[in-house]
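With this grant's support, we have settled on a layout for protein records. One resulting record is reproduced below.
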Amino acid sequence: MVVTCGNMLKLPSLEKMKVVAGEKGLNRIIRWVHVMEYPEYSKWLNGGELILFSGVSIENDVDKFINFVRDINSKNVSGLAVNIGPYIKKTPKEVIELANSLGFPIFEFPFQMKFIDVSQSICKAIFMNKIEQQSRDNFMKDIILRGVVFTEEILERAISYGYNPDEKYYSFVINLENFNELTIRDGVHNGEKMLQIKQHVEQIVMSVLNKRGKKPIQITEDSSIILMVPEGNNNSYENSVEEIGEEIIENINVAIDKLTVNIGIGGLWNELKDFKKSVGDAHRVLRLLKSNGLKNAVRYYENVGVYKLFFEINNQSEMEKFYLNSLKNLMEYDNKNATELIETLEAYIDEGGNLNRTSEKLFIHKNTLKYRIKRIEDISKCDLKDVNELFDFYISFKIEKFLKMNHFNS
């Protein structure tokens, strides 16, 4: 069980702890417990901590308390547990109002409860979850990477990890595109930085999904996270898979400076044996996003348009022949004369044949664009006013990107 601010109250020894503010943030994941008495030490926080606090350095200074809460919330701390006793009699209403507005959980626990008991109870649950996560990772990777025979025993083990055979699932693959670049220091990978970034991303992902009532199964890889995300009631746009992916990316971009993320979503499936194919489809989408130069983007396999057809075509030589028949003459002309007719044609198609938008996109005069279009028509012996010929060129450009993608990953 992932330990969140909400479910930690069910742990042993925490029966007398109660939430007094920030209930909207109870889905925040707790990575560790940290005792902190002096606000100036917040610079050492990594995010995801539950702070245990007696208030010895604040006492009755409400403004100082408010600034403290605002500061630790900005550092992605999961919550604050206040020890009610000689230093803080109760959480001030001004602090409660701020925490409610931030969705930042604040708890109170009686002075008789020992910090060590609170810390041990939560940290033990976190440790047990890590062991379970490792076991789950290995099991699910076997399903994805190896030829597993789906016996009753395998199914029962998957169920023990949270899989519901009566549910339908999407497969999310969240790839941290520049993860290695951000974690290299002096030419060497910074192990601590790698761990911090991955744990922070996992916290954000799970918080978004928990908020939407999704209980995913998570598998962690080197620079990516694979998720089984239950479909649930997915009839509204609010819960559409691409919209969920966009929210994950938006939250990561806000929280982790310079990290770029792409998300591929595989097709919907309802039998465990189909999980492998769905993950493969999600990886295909990621390669497609990369080949198109997209960053911080999300696509669902069913929404990749003509590329989905390409993925299902086994004979790529026929695709290459189609592409060359359409574009070979223009490519040779550009290479020989250092012109930009291919780029012009692609921009013209992308802009739906609109001369004004195309000339603006290419930063050229409208008359220059008209001249280039005439040259394209002469060289290719085509009529760009014919929608069928435009469609052939459109498909050819898509094939070009698809073939380059496959060549890059072969």
Remarks:
- The chain has a mean pLDDT of 86.
- The radius of gyration is 27 Å.
